[in-house]
Design goal:
Blueprint lengths: L1 H9 L6 H22 L4 H6 L1 H15 L5 H24 L6 E3 L6 E2 L2 E2 H19 L6 H25 L3 E3 L6 H21 L7 H19 L1
Antiparallel strand pairs: 1-4, 2-3
Helix pairs in contact: 2-4, 2-9, 4-6, 5-6, 5-8, 6-7, 6-8, 6-9, 7-8, 7-9
């Protein structure tokens, strides 16, 4: 009975129509994106629209966030800036993550860093933060650590795909272990920021986005 109640909390049977539409958009665009990535002659086109896909997901998140206000915008801007600066440090000094460079898939760059990478960090941190917020874990530290572990697991799925589809490239043949350590530490820091904003418990939309990220990259890794 307790397990059923926990599942109901994470994935409620009843939801607002706008939330149903948001879930349909998230699932549909990830499925279409997967088909486009694995279909010859279409993959080049779909790689070019990756930034627009990320912006669409941001739009869905912004529209469905409960109590959209200056506080939420400050959080989004802070995470965007932290993510962008971390990547800037990583690319230009190799102190974080390792030695790597960005390709063209993520679009427009500033100082050799795609602007979309800050957007992507926001989506990852927000969706993971909301997922952990909706979990049965009451301890803040455990939520932060659990969320950081989830993001490291996601990065394990992303890395082989990222190099194949020109997201970024490592200058060495192997992905350094430092990459995953820094992913964990940076994710934990950003999730700590998420916790400090003390947002009201959000809908399951962000959790669905996180789940679809796992499914998307897992599926691509299987067929490539």
């Amino acid at each position: 009975m307790e397990r059923a109640q926990n599942l109901k909390k994470l994935f409620p049977v009843t939801m607002k129509p706008v939330h149903r539409i948001a879930i349909i958009i998230i699932v549909l665009f990830h499925v279409v994106g997967f088909v486009g990535f694995v279909t010859p002659y279409f993959d080049v086109l779909f790689l070019k629209i990756v930034p627009w896909h990320l912006l669409l997901m941001v739009g869905v998140v912004l529209y469905t966030h409960d109590r959209f206000n200056g506080k939420f915008l400050l959080f989004a801007l802070l995470i965007f800036t932290m993510g962008f600066m971390a990547e800037f440090t990583g690319v230009h000094t190799s102190w974080l993550f390792g030695s790597y460079v960005y390709g063209e898939t993520l679009g427009i760059k500033l100082f050799s860093i795609p602007l979309m990478i800050g957007v992507n960090w926001f989506l990852l941190i927000y969706s993971t933060g909301v997922f952990m917020q909706r979990s049965r874990i009451k301890n803040t530290l455990f939520r932060i650590i659990g969320g950081a572990v989830i993001l490291v697991l996601l990065d394990l799925l992303i890395e082989p795909i990222a190099t194949q589809f020109d997201y970024w490239h490592w200058t060495s043949n192997n992905i350094p272990i430092k990459n995953y350590i820094c992913w964990f530490m940076l994710s934990a820091l950003m999730l700590f920021v998420f916790e400090k904003f003390k947002f009201k418990q959000q809908s399951m939309i962000a959790s669905v986005l996180l789940f679809m990220q796992f499914i998307f990259f897992m599926a691509l890794g299987t067929v490539n």
